Amino acid sequence: MKKNKLVSVVFLLLFLSCSCSDEKNNKIYKDEFTIATDVPIGEVSFDATSGIGANLKDLLFYPLFFVEEDGSYQSPLAKNIELLNEGKTLSIELKDNNAEEVKNSILKLVSSNVYNFKVSFKNFLGVFVMAPNKLKIEFKRYDRLLIQQLGSVNISKGQERSSTGEFELYKQEEDSVILKRKKLSQSEINYIKVKLIPSYRLAIREFVSGSIDLLLYTSANDYDIISDLPEYSFDILKGDTLFVLVENQLRNKFKKSIDWLKLNEVMDRKKLVSIYGSLISEEAFVPVKKSSIWYDPSWDSIKFKKSNFSDSLKNTLSNNSHRELSFIADQIVYELLGRQIKRWAQEIGVDLRLKPVDLNSYYTSILEKHEYDLLILPLNFDNPFLSTYLNFRSRSLEDKKSTFNIDYENKKVDELLDKARYERSFKDSKAYFVEAVNLILKEPPGAFLFWSNIPIVYRKGCSNLEFDSPNNFFLSLEKVSCLVSKN
């Protein structure tokens, strides 16, 4: 699984001292500003597929290849890519004589201790340089998961002037990356500096103090704190984060499980939308968005109807000891969500108690040691097949100790997900995947709640922000102007 920082991912803009003037309009505009990130510059995660990590990765590295929906390959590095030997050999002819560099990058990925790579590369046999511009990768068998992960190999662009719309890579340092507008503007920003600020709390303090123009993050709690300040404007960026209420079924083997089908029926998700408004993009009933090629039309009809249950049903669970729902202390959005879930749980006779934990305990006790009963968990599902496989397939005990996933075990689901993984035909692979998801819905590990949006806060002096996707963040800044003052 990805090394998730599951609580808050912060992107913000810190302006520098330089400015430009527009004499005709008697206005002074900022010339430079900084995007602060908690993603280490130069060490962008191989599995960064969304947000600032993906943007930085695209700027600093080439991916080895992309796998299209029809199974074909697109690559900025290769002339030709072929899958041979019944899917057990991937032959790559590169444009340049850098086969050794590509090989070393692949081996670095293979040796990663991150869960998703450990799982994905179990069928990896080796990578072999056949010529300065040719290499082949050998598998034990065809493996859809392995091939998808191979495509994320990072190949450095070095000093090449990589472009992203109107901006190009200007300078790279140990803790920062600077982009420069190709054709300088008198009224629009000309330099973007992406700088490492590991603490999002520090970034927020700088934002409130006035040294940051734009703040992009996923913490609805911080959104709530800043929302009353009159000098800021707000926007929403659609994201691929799925909020799930999960039960630690492995820890609770000897405790009667919550009847998740019944709980789903009493959960009126529209109430969540009314509470959180635009922070929720849509209700969630399955772990796949409609826009995905993995979505099945049969899921359109999945709507849990609110029901009233008799006292006899309530009594079936009332003899249980109380259950605990853990969430991060001082995160208002999680506490409000927890209170609503508690009310729903009471409707089916479950004594649910809220358990706030500090941030350090959340990462150590809960995410690493799995010491929780119930948990509200945000998960990145931008790649439904990859995310579903890594989150819902059973893990070994060793893997469970190393990183977090949904603590769910269902051998039939494991079997179906494996069939989807090793089937070369996309049509047949999707059929197995859909069957696996349908079984997860019948025997759920919890409840899918909603897909979340990312709140954006920016100073009113900045205009023309056109946010579309977290993966197009830099492109959204092409027309931005930040007014300093009027003469």
Write structural notes for this entry.
The chain has three domains: 10-52 and 160-231 and 460-486, D-Maltodextrin-Binding Protein, domain 2 (3-Layer(aba) Sandwich); 65-151, Dipeptide-binding Protein, Domain 1 (Dipeptide-binding Protein, domain 1); 240-452, Dipeptide-binding Protein, Domain 3 (Dipeptide-binding Protein, domain 3, Roll). It starts with 9 loop residues before the first strand and ends with a strand. The chain is 30% helix and 30% strand. The longest helix has 17 residues, at 426-442. It contains 15 helices and 25 strands. Strands 1, 4, 13, 14, 15, 16, 17, 18, 19, 20, 21, 22 and 23 form a 13-stranded mixed beta sheet that branches. It has a four-stranded antiparallel beta sheet with strand order 2-3-25-24, with no helix packed on it. Helix 14 runs antiparallel to helix 15. It is an alpha+beta fold and 487 residues long. A hairpin with a 4-residue loop joins strand 2 and strand 3.
By DSSP, the count of extended strands is 25
Largest sheet: 13 strands, mixed
| Integer-rounded radius of gyration | 24 Å
Mean pLDDT: 77
Q: In the CATH hierarchy, what is the architecture of the largest domain at level 2?
A: Roll
Q: Helical amount among residues, as a percent range?
A: 25-40%
Distance separating the two termini:
54 Å
Please give the domain count: 3
Per CATH, the superfamily of the largest domain is Dipeptide-binding Protein, Domain 3
CATH class of the largest domain: Alpha Beta
Tally of contiguous helical segments: 15
* Beta-strand content: 25-35%
What global shape is seen? globular
What class would the helix/strand composition place it in?
Answer: alpha+beta
Note poorly predicted spans: 1-19, 305-319
**CATH topology (fold) name of the largest domain:** Dipeptide-binding Protein, domain 3
